[in-house]
Write a structure and sequence with these properties.
This protein is an alpha+beta fold and about 150 residues long. It contains four helices and seven strands. A hairpin with a 4-residue loop joins strand 5 and strand 6.
Length: about 150
């Protein structure tokens, strides 16, 4: 029984590792509020590898997310990727939130104005609703191995 448990555990660990190794690089065409278009590449594997919020417990994340510094995080859900860029200086945060639908490639983003890291929930909802929105479409970028 112990060997079976170890075998199942190793399969589980191996499947998580292989999943992490297979994150795509996405090329996104984003429509700006002025109707111009911007191309942006997101290497999800690289973002995940360097994500300082990985393995943080909820209380650790709450503390970390209020410290001065710059960081990028990736959350992977069944239906979407969520990327968060955060820049914090002297307790003021500017942030950029991106959601990419994993099935359709639909890109949605908003950029928050600088705000206190101690903002209330009600004020954060207003800040998000007033933030400029960006939409686009992403596709898997193929490495041509040049």
């Amino acid at each position: 029984m112990k060997k079976l448990f170890i075998f199942i555990f190793l399969i589980f660990i191996g499947s998580n590792i292989s999943f992490a190794k297979n994150l795509p690089t996405l090329k996104c065409i984003i429509e700006n509020p002025d109707r111009s278009k911007t191309m942006q590449v997101y290497d999800l594997q690289e973002i995940e590898k360097n994500d300082p919020t990985n393995n943080l417990k909820s209380n650790e994340f709450q503390s970390f997310s209020k410290k001065d510094g710059e960081w990028i995080s990736l959350n992977i859900f069944d239906d979407v990727y969520r990327i968060r860029y955060s820049w914090i200086t002297n307790g003021l945060e500017a942030a950029h939130h991106i959601t990419i639908n994993r099935k359709t490639g639909v890109f949605e983003s908003f950029i928050l104005q600088k705000h206190s890291v101690h903002i209330s929930f009600e004020d954060s909802i207003k800040l998000i609703s007033d933030a400029p929105r960006y939409n686009g479409i992403c596709e898997r970028k193929v490495n041509k191995k040049l």
